[in-house]
Write a structure and sequence with these properties.
3 helices; 48% helix; mainly alpha; single chain; membrane; 0% strand
Length: 99
Amino acid sequence: MSHEASTRSDAGSSPAHAGKGHLVGNVLVFVIMFGMFLLGLYLVSWLSLDNVWPMAALVVLAFLAFFIPQGILGRADTGYNLAEGNRTAEKETSAGVNS
């Protein structure tokens, strides 16, 4: 298993990096995640021992902050193939485990 970078000189034949050509989508995701961050900061100001809802909302925001990028937008289902250097469009089980 080799971890050497590709030495091709022409940019057209080398695979694009993850964000290339997705500016609008990347900006949209950034705005949503940053909005969640600012909402979380605002909710921290409402924390008290008498009111549990701001903390519940913070837990939900924290879950979404990890789940949206990794589970929905990420390529969690093809991570094993990408780690091996294979670029495929088909979806397979993670880590090559068959059930």
